[in-house]
């Protein structure tokens, strides 16, 4: 950039650098999606096409930012979890946050007509806010993921019962709200089963468990037989990974399939079966 007498204004800029060796979590959330979903006639309680669109936008973000190792989405929100050792944008908070939010929003708009072809987008247009949270250990990061999945369960059980009362039971919304006030999970399960013959456990997993997206590197991983421990060490160390190694890793990731699953991420099984998700994690 050319020098000028105005250059000094740059000294007013403030940057927050995210702590090293911590999990960076960026959570994006739709702004005013209660209103947005009404305006665009989302099916209640769950519009499947809208969820598929969220997942597709999240997968696109992950393709563009390979330092994201997995993402978890429910309703109008998505959490993106970066590798602990990520050096993306020198870990500058504003660059990371704004890039994730704007890339997600751009793909959401771009893919809208593919997923919701019958409803053209008109203002009110969708927009998303975002925040960054740092988690210092695998335990806290996993507790964060568990928190979001528990939220998914609580909200979905409530919404499923609420909308059954309204849509199938002919109740008005105020009455349905009153009926559900102070009820426990067992009460809602009972209402669903006895009044509407719905077994909540048979509801689609995407609604009950949310969506987890990650690179399924298991196949090339085993084929090339890289030593996960060595990879973890090299990612954590200050030693610059050689260009060829970096290129190999980039190719391996770009070949790997991005998968969407609707599964339990609270129990250990999910993480034990996919060790590469926590690769580069010193305290695992
Ligand atoms: P804020 O701007 O504070 O986030 P909001 O209106 O977006 O406000 P949220 O708590 O984020 O509030 O809730 C999102 C709302 O969007 C849900 O309560 C639901 O009404 C609606 N929504 C999001 N996704 C779907 C979907 N796939 N199907 C049906 N409704 C949805
Ligand atoms: P970064 O991601 O770090 O911002 P960048 O490639 O966007 O990288 P900038 O410093 O923001 O770098 O510069 C933007 C570049 O985009 C310009 O150097 C120029 O090459 C190009 N550019 C932007 N707007 C125009 C335009 N209207 N016409 C032609 N080129 C443009
Ligand atoms: Mg919202
Ligand atoms: Mg939300």
UniProtKB/TrEMBL annotation:
Keyword Electron transport: no
Cofactors named for this entry: Mg(2+)
Binding site for Mg(2+) 1: 29-30, 76
Single annotated GO MF: magnesium ion binding
Binding site for Mg(2+) 2: 29, 76
Keywords tagged on the record: GTP-binding, Magnesium, Metal-binding, Nucleotide-binding, Nucleotidyltransferase, Transferase, tRNA processing
Class in the EC hierarchy, top level: transferase
GO BP annotations listed: tRNA modification
Matches recorded under InterPro entries: Thg1_C_dom (IPR025845), tRNAHis_GuaTrfase_cat (IPR024956), tRNAHis_GuaTrfase_Thg1 (IPR007537), tRNAHis_GuaTrfase_Thg1_sf (IPR038469)
EC numbers for this chain: 2.7.7.79
Domain Thg1 C-terminal: 139-267
Cofactor remark from the record: Binds 2 magnesium ions per subunit.
Entry annotated with the keyword Electron transport: no
UniProt superkingdom: Eukaryota
Catalytic reactions on record: a 5'-end ribonucleotide-tRNA(His) + GTP + ATP + H2O = a 5'-end phospho-guanosine-ribonucleotide-tRNA(His) + AMP + 2 diphosphate + H(+)
Pfam families in the record: Thg1, Thg1C
Residue stretches making up the tRNAHis guanylyltransferase catalytic domain: 6-136
Binding site for GTP: 29-34, 75-76
PANTHER family: TRNA(HIS) GUANYLYLTRANSFERASE-RELATED (PTHR12729)
Similarity field: Belongs to the tRNA(His) guanylyltransferase family.
Function: Adds a GMP to the 5'-end of tRNA(His) after transcription and RNase P cleavage.
Protein name: tRNA(His) guanylyltransferase
Source organism of this protein record: Lepraria neglecta
